Amino acid sequence: MAADLPLVVSLNCLEDPSLERVALAGAAAVEHVGLTGLSGGRIESAAVVLLHSLVLLPPAAQRRLRPWLLILCLGSADHAVNSALASDLGLRLVHVDANRVEEVADTIMALFLGLLRRIHLLSRLPHRRPPPPGGSDPSRGGCAGAEASC
Fold first, then answer.
1. Which CATH entry fits the domain spanning 2-124: 3.40.50.2300, 3.40.47.10, 3.40.1390.30, 3.40.50.850?
2. PANTHER family under this entry (predicted)?
């Protein structure tokens, strides 16, 4: 079941993510990846990456981050430098203010994980095929076309 859940990777922070695993059980899998474990491919398969500072990551770790990842920067003192680097790398970075870490982190994580969960569930739904040209879709009911009267 954990293979079906979105992956949250703590990159060189939260060395013991047991609390996060318990809190996100059933919604996401949580793993810690240290700088020595970059080649394991966990960053590339993640949906969310948690880190302290993008600037402090080695270039090899920065190159593994992809534009579709949600990257949460936890408590970085220099928002402008991290934001500029993220922009240069084509990444979207969300800063979590160090003064209100608990409130902001809880809210952001809840919102984004709720979104990830819904996207994950929607991806499993069967896709409807479009109605035939000029006809109606029997699964939707009703009529199609300008001249049809229902």
1. 3.40.50.2300
2. C-TERMINAL BINDING PROTEIN AN, C-TERMINAL BINDING PROTEIN AN-RELATED
* In the chain, domain spans: 2-124
Q: What percent of the chain clears pLDDT 90, i.e. is strictly above it?
A: 7
**Distance separating alpha carbons of residues 50 and 57, to the nearest angstrom:** 12
Residue spans of alpha helices (H) in 2-148: 18-23, 59-64, 79-89, 101-124
CA distance 60 to 52: 16
pLDDT at 139 over 60: no
Side chain identity, residue 117: R
- Roughly how many angstroms between the first and final C-alpha of the chain, as a whole number? 46
pTM exceeds 0.70: no
Contacts of 26-29 with CB under 8 Å at 24 or more apart are 27/113, 27/116, 27/117, 28/113, 28/116, 28/117, 29/2, 29/5
User: 10, 32 in Cβ contact below 8 A?
Assistant: yes
Q: What is the pLDDT of residue 141?
A: 54
